Amino acid sequence: MRVAALISGGKDSCYNMLQCVSAGHSIVALANLMPHTHVPDELDSYMYQTVGHQAVDLYAEAMDVPLYRRTIEGSSLHTGREYSQTEGDEVEDLYQLLKLVKEKEHVEAVSVGAILSDYQRVRVENVCARLQLQPLAYLWRRDQAELLREIISSGLQALLIKVAAYGLDPERHLGKSLAEMEAYLHELSEKYGVHICGEGGEYETFTVDCPLFKKKIVIDSMETVIHSADAFDTYSSLHTESEIFAR
Fold first, then answer.
1. Where is the Diphthamide synthase domain (predicted)?
2. Contacts of range 54-59, beta carbons closer than 8 Å, 24 or more positions apart
């Protein structure tokens, strides 16, 4: 099938694209929702990862496929277990984005990197049903330790660009690769119940290389932004300046 991939820049959306290709599908377009320029780097959203959104444009060049982006106009209005079309909800931004991609690229399916969030799954499925698109979520309910090992082994290279959990230190861990962090994430999982793949919001990543990339993303500079220094309520992110290079 012709597939539009929902991407955030993180490891999960990128690895699910790999799984789509392995299953015989073709990634013909990328789709991303981004915050307004006047709002913080990371939007307070139940649905979307926006930290690192400034570098998402590089994905299109790295993969040589078109990227469709839309500004998030709505907010989290309909927060129940089920979802129905709600004017002003951020889910409707996803509907409008995928509607455009379907019209322009004639896609039949959508790649979705959801692992554990029923909230996200229900809403993506609602949008896909309304547009008669097939959601492809190969990571759904996978064992997280096994999945992280698989992601690293696939050749996908992703760096931590946000930490928000006890035991994750911005000075030590921001900018580290998943391969460098794997053993420590297992340790945090055993000690504190941290989700190894960050499904509890413990960390976010940005993918700089993967087997689908024809070019590699290189980070030129990094700046740590501390949003909360409380040991029990830490939240720090990495602002990066990136560019792209041929292999």
1. 1-228
2. 54/240, 55/9, 55/206, 55/217, 55/240, 55/242, 56/7, 56/8, 56/9, 56/32, 58/217, 58/242, 58/243, 58/244, 59/7, 59/9, 59/30
* Among candidate residues 104, 119, 136, the one where a domain is terminated: 136
At residue 206 the predicted structure's pLDDT band, cuts being 50, 70 and 90, is very high
Q: Give the confidence band of 54 by pLDDT, cuts at 50, 70, 90.
A: confident
Residue among 15, 72, 45 at smallest CA distance from 209: 15
Domain boundary among 80, 115, 136: 136
Instruction: Verify that 174 and 205 share a domain, yes or no.
Output: yes
**C-beta of residue 92 within 8 angstroms of C-beta of residue 85:** yes
Closest to 216 in 3D by CA, of 162, 159, 137, 173: 159
Q: State pLDDT tens for residues 60-108.
A: 999 999 999 999 999 889 999 999 999 999 999 999 999 999 999 999 9
Contact in structure between 98 and 4 (CB atoms under 8 Å): yes
- 0.70 exceeded by pTM: yes
Domain co-membership, 132 together with 158: no
Q: What whole-number distance in Å separates Cα of residue 117 and Cα of residue 103?
A: 28
User: φ and ψ at 246, to 5 degrees?
Assistant: -70, 150
Q: Are 158 and 104 part of one and the same domain?
A: no
A 10 A CB-CB count for 231 gives 9
Neighbour count for residue 25 (Cβ, 10 Å): 19
Number of domains in the chain: 2
Based on the fold, state whether residues 126 and 81 are members of the same structural domain.
Answer: yes
Whether 174 and 120 share a structural domain: no
